[in-house]
Write a structure and sequence with these properties.
With 448 residues, the chain is α/β, with parallel strands linked by helices. It folds into 3 domains: 201 residues, 3-Layer(bba) Sandwich (FAD/NAD(P)-binding domain); 111 residues, FAD/NAD(P)-binding domain, CATH 3.50.50.60; 106 residues, Enolase-like, domain 1 (2-Layer Sandwich). Helices cover 31% and strands 23% of the residues. It contains 12 helices and 22 strands. Strands 1, 2, 3, 4, 5, 6 and 17 form a 7-stranded mixed sheet that branches. It has a 5-stranded parallel sheet with strand order 8-15-9-10-11. Strand 9, helix 6 and strand 10 form a beta-alpha-beta unit. Helix 1 runs parallel beside helix 8. The chain is globular.
């Protein structure tokens, strides 16, 4: 059969852009359709602009601490519109770079929505149909909205970057990384924040002891954290303020509700049924180790598969897909020991097994090493916050199977340490490594 393109990608996010570039480098004729902006969730309305807000939030404490370090700063104030516009301008700059990547690799870009109309066919919003030997779905995920009365009065992380002004009060519903990160960001910007979750803990999947330390520090900063809060509805008052109904847990009056209760694969209305593509109960496309769906010509990578919702994972999957299908180099992605971080205040990061998971897998054959310390900067500034580093080893040779950190710059420190966990090094390798002094990272090689 003759097709318009060798590869048609729906979605120009991190996974789709990487797949397009690598497939094109292998000689494939590639097209991409993107209904919003090139760059996807991470670049346009996710981890990149959010990290810029995290940097801005850090200055709230830095300005306060400056006096203890000899600086006199009078009249310091925060200007939300200025930071917002700088962030949005940089997002536009990055979008241009991603678009340039497509152009440089001779990828045809259709700036419109595409839906699947057959195993080898997509239909664009304009009505044009395009055929392709292979179709790759890389549309990512979308914030989940709770099914409660008044949900239309809330916003999600998609909209928070575009606020005209910051509210005086905000309720953040959720227990994951997005909820905890925005709790720290908004609090630092002077918003009175209440963080609510239906469950009894935050950040499931992270080490409990590390998470408990974060919750304690978040509460100490002034964020009102409420567990077992059943969000039952939102009502709008005459002055445009909102009432959040928590049933037996009472009501909260606020000016903004931010939903951060999870993200769902963005497959609704995508036309998957026209090609017979199988999805799971969450709407995620079911794929094999080579990212192939049950339809031989249709593949999927990234958050739309709901395997691991992380940008670097989507990039690896997109690359592996292109090498496998167009580069004659079959490859799969190794999902073991993926380092992750929460850019909360302070940040936490982890790689490998948590203590709970290690005990379930190895029983009594594990050892736990910890360093509970007060960072030097906190000592000078008078802050009481303490960092906590935790190493989990297993077996007689004490192989390091997990590292979990909370404290300043934890994510930066963990990236290098994650290599050791991935490589299967043991505790002795850490002990044999000379400390870099004075640093927080040296605590990794000094734990006893």
């Amino acid at each position: 059969m003759s097709f318009d393109f060798d590869l048609f990608i729906i979605g120009a996010g991190s996974g789709g852009v990487r797949a397009s570039r690598i497939a094109a480098s292998h000689g494939a004729k590639v097209a991409v359709a993107e209904e919003h902006r090139v760059g996807g969730t991470c670049v346009i309305r996710g981890c990149v602009p959010k990290k810029m807000l995290v940097y801005g939030a850090h200055f709230a404490e830095d300005v306060h601490d400056a006096a203890r370090f000899g600086w006199d700063i009078q009249g310091a104030s925060f200007n939300w519109p200025r930071l917002r516009d700088v962030v949005l301008d940089d997002v536009t700059r990055l979008e241009g770079l991603y678009t340039q990547t497509l152009n440089n690799n001779h990828v045809t870009l259709f700036p419109e929505r595409a839906t699947i109309s057959g195993p080898h066919e997509v239909t664009l919003t304009s009505g044009k149909t395009v055929t392709a030997k292979v179709i790759l779905v890389a549309v990512g995920g979308w914030p989940t909205i709770p099914n409660v009365p008044g949900a239309e009065y809330g916003i999600t992380s998609n909209e928070v970057f575009h606020l005209d002004a910051l509210p005086k009060r905000a309720v953040i519903a959720g227990a994951g990384y997005i909820a905890n990160e925005f709790a720290g960001i908004l609090h630092a910007f002077g918003v009175e924040v209440t963080l609510v979750t239906r469950g009894d803990r935050m950040l499931r999947g992270y080490d409990t002891e590390i998470v408990d330390r974060l919750v304690a520090m978040t509460t100490a900063k002034g964020v009102d954290v409420r567990f077992d809060f059943p969000l039952q509805g939102i009502a709008k008052q005459e002055d445009n303020s909102l009432i959040v109904d928590g049933g037996d847990q009472g009501q909260i009056e606020t000016d903004m509700v931010l939903f951060a209760i999870g993200r769902s694969p963005k497959t609704q209305g995508l036309g998957l049924e026209h090609a017979g593509v199988a999805v799971d109960k969450s709407g995620a496309i079911i794929v094999d180790a080579h990212n192939r769906s049950n339809v031989a010509s249709i593949y999927a990578v990234g958050d739309v598969t709901n395997r691991v919702q992380l940008t670097p994972v989507a990039i690896r999957e997109g690359h592996a897909f292109a090498d496998t299908v167009f580069g004659n180099n079959p490859r799969t992605v190794d999902y073991d020991a993926i380092p992750t971080a929460v850019f909360s205040s302070p940040p936490l990061a982890g790689v490998g097994l948590t203590e709970e998971d290690a005990r379930a897998q190895y029983g009594d054959g594990i050892k736990i090493y910890k360093s509970d310390f007060r960072p030097m900067k906190n000592v000078v500034s008078g802050r009481q916050e303490r960092g906590l580093y935790k190493m989990i080893t297993a077996g007689p040779d004490e192989q390091v199977v997990g590292l979990h950190l909370i404290g300043p710059d934890s994510s930066e420190i963990l990236q290098a340490a994650a290599i050791a966990v991935k490589a299967g090094l043991n505790k002795q390798a850490f002990d044999d490594t000379m400390a870099l002094h004075p640093s927080m990272a040296e605590e990794l090689v000094l734990m006893k």
